[in-house]
Amino acid sequence: MGMIEEGLRLGEINGVNIPRRKRSSSVESKPDDDGASISMMEVATIMIAMANANGGYYKRKRKKSSTSKQRKKSSTPKQRKKSPTKKQRRKSRGKEMELGKSPPEMPAAMRDRIVGNGGIEIELVIQKKLEESDVNRNNGRLSLPAKKVRREFVREEEKKILDEEKGKNEKKKKGMEVGIVDDFLRESSMWLKKWKIGSGKDYCLMNNWNCFVEENGLRSGDFVQLWSFRINSSDRLCFAIVKLSHLL
Q1: Per-residue pLDDT tens digits for 106-132
Q2: Could you tell me the pLDDT band of residue 143, with boundaries at 50, 70 and 90?
Q3: Which of 36, 48, 120, 205 is deepest in the core (most CB within 10 A)?
Q4: 226 three-state secondary structure
């Protein structure tokens, strides 16, 4: 006990201020005592205070760290945004193309070829997704639904020709021959007719359509553009067909 009391002097112990104990004037100090020793009761009180102080500090530190982790954990899912997959991007792009929003321009090489051959009045007629009925050999035609046609491309005298019946058979129309240009700038011809499909009448490209499908590798689900133009010298109606599926 004497050693403990001798080792504890007035001042600070681990940051805890130790007050000086007043000694009675009636008690004579010993020669080796400087009046700074404390009792065991005071030592116990100081040690308890130190333990409480240290315990409270670590407890607060752990609580703050736990709260920080919880905030970080709770905020992480809100900050993360999943990027669209390739399939979703293709689907979104395909939907935009089917609706015809911001349609691509005609390829420059094709336009130059048409203009070089005297082509004028180049206009986009329709942009559509090919259905199974468009590539089926038994049908042998490309339908141009009236609701999806962007502009009227036939003139009044041509409409009369398309409405004329071939003989007494109402299903057979005369139609008119038109010029065709494909992606490879190959030129051919087809017949444009007007058929009653459902409650309305749609334009159809036929005769040599099956060959065009094979030569250009068209499949159901492909997107195509149909551009109309006329030859300045003869005023002949022609079409350019562009495959767009490579853009998806």
Answers
A1: 999 999 999 999 999 999 999 999 999
A2: very high
A3: 205
A4: strand
| Rounded-to-integer distance, Cα 22 and Cα 248, Å | 93
Instruction: Identify the residue whose tokens are 């709770």.
Output: 74
pTM over 0.85: no
Domains and CATH numbers, the chain: 2-78 (no CATH), 89-247 (2.40.330.10)
Q: What is the phi/psi pair of residue 205, to 5°?
A: -100, 125
Under a CB-based contact definition with an 8 Å cutoff, are residues 245 and 135 in contact? no
- Up-side HSE of residue 186: CA atoms within 13 Å toward CB? 8
Please give the Cα distance from 81 to 79 (Å, whole number): 6
DSSP track, 84-130: PPHHHHHHHHHHHHHHTSSPPPPPHHHHHHHHHTTEEEEEEEEEEEP
Q: Parallel, antiparallel, or unpaired: how do β-strands 176-181 and 237-243 relate?
A: parallel
Q: Are 227 and 123 in contact (CB under 8 A)?
A: yes
